[in-house]
Write a structure and sequence with these properties.
There is one protein chain. Strands 2, 4, 5, 6, 9, 10 and 11 form a 7-stranded mixed sheet that branches. Strands 1-3-8-7 form a 4-stranded antiparallel sheet, with no helix packed on it. It is an all-beta fold and about 120 residues long. The model has no long low-confidence stretch (mean pLDDT about 95). About 0% of the residues lie in helices and about 50% in strands.
């Protein structure tokens, strides 16, 4: 699976941004998909994940209620809708795919990664 993230940019605090991740590969619908972010000087952290069917979603406490992850298996896309953005959301955002049965919040459980897209939230 190859992943290509896009949609990053500059947004004012309180604004919205939509990140997308396009995937190649016929087995896209089999993978759990996740979004992670890495701020300068910090470790990569879990943001959100969605199961293969899209039936279950998971969020970090810091983004719950503000971000929404979704997927379209017919188009091989996973999206992250970011609302009510905060300056602390500033980071490089990565999409990832994995076939894990547990540890959905751990970046080590994901097998494939996109190249990252920069999100900057200004105060």
């Amino acid at each position: 699976v190859q992943l290509q993230a896009s949609g990053g940019g500059l947004v004012q605090a309180g604004g919205s941004l939509r990140l997308s991740c396009a995937a190649s590969g016929r087995t896209f619908s089999s993978y759990i998909l996740g979004w992670f972010r890495e701020a300068p000087g910090k470790e990569r952290e879990f943001v959100a994940a969605i199961t293969s069917s899209g039936g279950s979603t998971y969020y970090a406490d810091s983004v719950k209620g503000r971000f929404t992850i979704s997927r379209d298996n017919a188009k091989n896309l996973v999206n992250l809708q970011m609302n009510s953005s905060k300056p602390e959301d500033t980071a490089v955002y990565y999409c990832a795919a994995g076939l894990m049965y547990s540890g959905i919040r751990s970046p080590r459980r994901y097998d494939y990664w996109g190249q990252g897209t920069l999100v900057t939230v200004s105060s």
